[in-house]
Each structure stands twice: as C-alpha cells, then as structure tokens.
Design brief:
This protein is mostly helical and 218 residues long. It folds into two domains: 73 residues, Orthogonal Bundle (Arc Repressor Mutant, subunit A), CATH 1.10.10; 138 residues, Four Helix Bundle (Hemerythrin (Met), subunit A), CATH 1.20.120.530. It is 76% helix and 4% strand. It is built from nine helices and two strands. Strands 1-2 form a two-stranded antiparallel sheet. The longest helix has 25 residues. It is globular and about 50 Å long. The N terminus is likely disordered.
Length: 218
C-alpha cells in the first residue's frame, strides 16, 4: 500500500477538504441555499473527489449542508430566528471548553492563546477584518487543543462556523473592537489558569454574540 493509500493519509485528506469547504461556507463564498457541485469544489480547493465527498457527508451531519431528496446537496440557509438558540447551546459548550483549557493548557499554549487574542485586538484597531478572523480561528484552535475534550470540540465547531458565517453576512452590525475585548478576556483567563475568569470570558463573548444577533433582528 502506498503512502497515498494509507488510512491515515486518507483521513488527513478528508480533514483538509472539510476545513476548506467549511471556510468557503463561513466566508459566504458558498452562499446560503447554493447548490453543491462536486466539480466546482474540486476546482476551488484543488482536492480530489473522494475527500471532497467524505467531507460533504460530515458537513451534512453537522447541519452546514442539507441533503434534498432528488435535488442533491445545498448550503444550509442562515436562520436568524434560530440563531439565538444556537448561541444558547454554544454557551454551555464554550464554558466547558474554557474551563478545561484554563486547567489543562501547557505553558506554550497559554502563551499562544494570549498572542492570538492580542493579534485580534490589533487587527480590530486597524479595521483589518481578514487579520481579525484569521487570529480568531487560530485562537479557537489552540483553546480547543488545550481543553483536552474532543467531544465538546466536535460539538461546538459547527456552531462556531454558523456564528462566523452569520457575522460575515451581517458584519455591518458588528463591532470588531468589542469582539476583540471579549476574546481577550477569555484568553487572559486561560493564560492565567484562572477557570472562573476564563468561563466569565466565554460568557461575555456569548453575550456579545447575542447582542449582535438582536441588532440584526431589529
């Protein structure tokens, strides 16, 4: 069996495809309601058909893509009325993840968490949306690794993508600097190993997302 055919390499290819398609959905390059065409995704990502198909099935399971009878796959719609319920559910998971990260992060991870949050703050001051989102994603990845709870992480990631997509769709209502402040509070709690402050930071971030959603609704 060649290296390209090993189960580990196949799993890695699927993960790369999943992340690539997830990013296309979150940034609205694949728009809500858009039909999924495999050949288009292959061209957009440069990946093979098999990992693309496997990634799409995972995205169907997470709710980011919907399977329609006799009509194939399409990107799920942004359901504003349900977004507050999503944040309410995400809050519980974020509290668990923040607490775990504050207790279990390595010294290197604590430093990385703080550095990424500071990058978010700097990008917010400069109005650098892409830099802000890149640092946000990097911050999530370190905290998720640090919490040592793959079940909570697996459950929360689709919700994070839905929130990120919601922000991209309605970013004119957003406040980058306020968002960065919330992330920094969470990061400082994790970096200090202070579970109470980390959980409070997670709650502050969810409160911000709730207020942002109400702005959109109104």
């Amino acid at each position: 069996m060649s290296l390209k055919e090993t189960p580990a390499s196949k799993s890695r290819a699927t993960e790369v495809a999943y992340n690539a398609i997830e990013t296309l959905i979150a940034t609205l390059k694949l728009e809500p309601g858009q039909q999924i065409v495999e050949n288009d995704l292959i061209q957009m990502t440069g990946l093979g058909r098999t990992p693309i198909r496997e990634a799409l099935m995972r995205l169907v399971a997470s709710g980011l893509i919907e399977q329609q009878p006799r009509r194939g796959l399409r990107v799920s719609e942004i359901r504003i009325a349900e977004h507050l319920i999503l944040i309410e559910t995400r809050r519980v998971l974020e509290q668990l993840i923040a607490s775990g990260a504050a207790r279990k992060a390595t010294p290197a991870q604590r430093a990385q968490v703080l550095a990424h949050a500071q990058k978010m703050a700097a990008a917010a001051q400069q109005g650098d949306i892409q830099g802000y989102m890149d640092a946000d994603q990097a911050l999530d990845e370190v905290i998720h690794d640090a919490c040592r709870n793959p079940y909570a992480v697996q459950a929360v990631i689709p919700m994070i993508i839905q929130c990120r997509r919601f922000w991209y769709a309605f970013q004119f209502e957003g406040d980058l600097e306020r968002g960065a402040e919330c992330h920094l509070k969470l990061a400082e709690g994790v970096a200090a190993g202070d579970t109470e402050k980390a959980v409070s930071g997670a709650n502050t971030l969810m409160d911000y997302l709730v207020s942002f959603t109400y702005k959109v609704i109104k």
